[in-house]
Write a structure and sequence with these properties.
5-stranded mixed β-sheet; two-stranded antiparallel ribbon; elongated
Length: 181
């Protein structure tokens, strides 16, 4: 089954004017997980669930909660598939379209300072936000693209790759001497 390029793999639209007062649970079904696995180049996603709370602050919607996923990914060293767990805090703001793009002189440089406690912002237009796509994006950002599986050290050894500090020979000795001096 090929995904429609205009349709998100995980879509959970919510009307802005009638936000639920209680926490919202989002759980991806098998076909949604398979489509997301293709999107993120993963061998598989066995579980994807999010618990979120929505707060409306005028036209801005604040989304807080947690995402939990059980994925299978390929080791960056050996290429073998291995299971991985993701637990990620969700802290987002949906803002009306145009608020994120202040009018700026095109010749001026724009400097934005971000802090660790700043949340991600997602623009929306109309009267709907898509919590599913926000969850999918959160998952995509949480996946470690350089994750190493349990056989990574064996694959390194078989390829003749040694860890830093374990090298022998004249070049290694010269580099070690430079580090000390």
């Amino acid at each position: 089954m090929v995904n429609d390029p205009g349709k998100p793999e995980l879509s959970r639209p919510i009307k802005v004017k009638s936000l639920p007062g209680e926490p919202v649970s989002i759980e991806a079904d098998a076909s949604e997980r398979a489509a997301l696995a293709r999107r993120f180049s993963l061998p598989g996603i066995d579980r994807l669930r999010a618990e979120i709370v929505l707060d409306q602050l005028g036209a801005v919607i604040r989304v807080n909660g947690t995402l939990e996923a059980a994925i299978r990914q390929s080791c960056a060293i050996s290429g073998e598939d291995f299971p991985a767990r993701i637990e990620e805090a969700i802290d987002l703001r949906f803002v009306p379209e145009g608020i994120l793009d202040p009018a700026v002189d095109e010749d001026a440089e724009l400097e934005i300072e971000l802090h660790a406690d700043d949340c991600d912002e997602i623009e929306y237009s109309g009267d709907m936000i898509d919590l599913g796509e926000a969850i999918a994006q959160t998952l995509g950002l949480a996946i470690d693209p350089y994750a190493e599986g349990p056989n990574a050290d064996v694959a390194r050894a078989q390829a003749g790759i040694v860890a830093e500090g374990e090298q022998d020979g004249p070049l290694a000795a010269a580099l070690a001497a430079l580090k000390k001096g």
